[in-house]
Amino acid sequence: MKPFLDVEKNRVSYHKSVKTNTVHRSSLIVPRFDQAASNISFLNHFLLKRNNKDVVLKITAINDNGVLEDSVSVEINEPKVYSFNLESFFEKASKIKEYLVEFYSDKNLFIPFPAVMVNHIGTDFINSVHSFNRVLNDVFEDDKVNLHQVFESSIDVSMDKDYDTFFNFATGPFKVKSDLQLSLIQKDKKSYIIPIEMERLSNKNIFLSNFHKNNIKSEAILKVLQPEQTLFYGRLFTGRINKKTKAFSANHSYYDSSLTKEYFENSVSMRTYPFFNNCLNKIIMYPIMSPSSLEVSIEIYGNDETYKSDIKIIESPSNNPILFDINELVKKSGFDDVSLFKVVAQSSTGKIPTRVNHQLIYGDKNSASKLYSSINLSLLNENIYTPPHKTGMSWGQVLVNKSYESRLGISFMNNSGASEEVLVDFYCKSGFLKSTKHNLNPNNSLIFDNDFFKKIKAPNEFIWYLAKSKRSDLQADSFHYHKSSGNASGEHSF
User: What's the pTM value of the predicted model, to 2 decimals?
Assistant: First the structure.
């Protein structure tokens, strides 16, 4: 883990000069699963954001033994969505264990982690998560990224006769022979040691039921300590799986900072999120932030009125996550046409942890499926660096498919200030699709649904949006769920 304040220092340096510490390789790893097709999708942000026409994508297929099966290269030079079903590039796809995806350019790519969505497409589910692990570019990057080893957490746990919890452990460029450490915390704490011996550039699904035999009926805390790996950044791909159908909904893990003392010199962090009417809307917060006691509440906005929820206390470290059912709070507010809510965390000490992480939950409110969309996010703080004269630009993926309900919400991260114009461009695989312009009140979100995508004649594929505003705090969240199974997935914008 890289300390957050070091991340901030690098961001300041990055914006001071574009010619120092340049990046010419940006990469990710995609695991392959038997029950789903492997897809990557991305908007050519290299061109649309930085006017870089000189980008090459290289996709390398790797087998169980960590051996290269084959590779292909594609020029990335058009203003459109690129969407690739990875198995279609290679013969004998069943031998492939994972894909190494790399972008190269002689021009500065700026970010070594590309804005790519990893999609696993099954019969009644499509799981979407942004790039989450990668082989590092050099030893100097390794010095910074792997400075501190911590547990990975922020994992939604479920175990009963129908569902299990899993995580996918990946290896970097070197073989691993070591142990994984698991901590499962409910009223008490149970620990497990898992021996690992795996080839380089491989991955393995590990199921909680293989070690813990009792059902889990309420929110539990799962923490996983991975072995140290040189030249590799690896968050866990983790979530819930239907034991019978093998459908899953998974996202990336997040750092357990409960043993790391790192704080902002103020007492409040917050963030707003879109509220989707007639859908599931929840917040789950795990006690994995730096040691602290935080008062957390939700604010609901209706016209010029504000409803504030009761305060919940989260102690970190502890055994007790907290949960807010946003639908219930909206009902209590009595407000009509709610499209935005805010999460507020406050410390009484004058200092607040730099990382206040949580899960943003969306899905089908009428479905019994436990495979809801769980999006990993963190609250914002006024001490986070914003470059001078920065404007807002936010982009991401939306699924358009006749078998799925999809939602996109665009909002500002902070609900203060005046209304501002927001321009939203939509792209598909053939290029530019449609542009819309809106005047957005900071107490509201722009909501796009199936009817909108039908109206603009969006094809049945992964559509990408590109939102722009003079305000720098522009953001978006999207999710989808299968109309029959209710299985959901979603992700925040880049």
Answer: 0.95
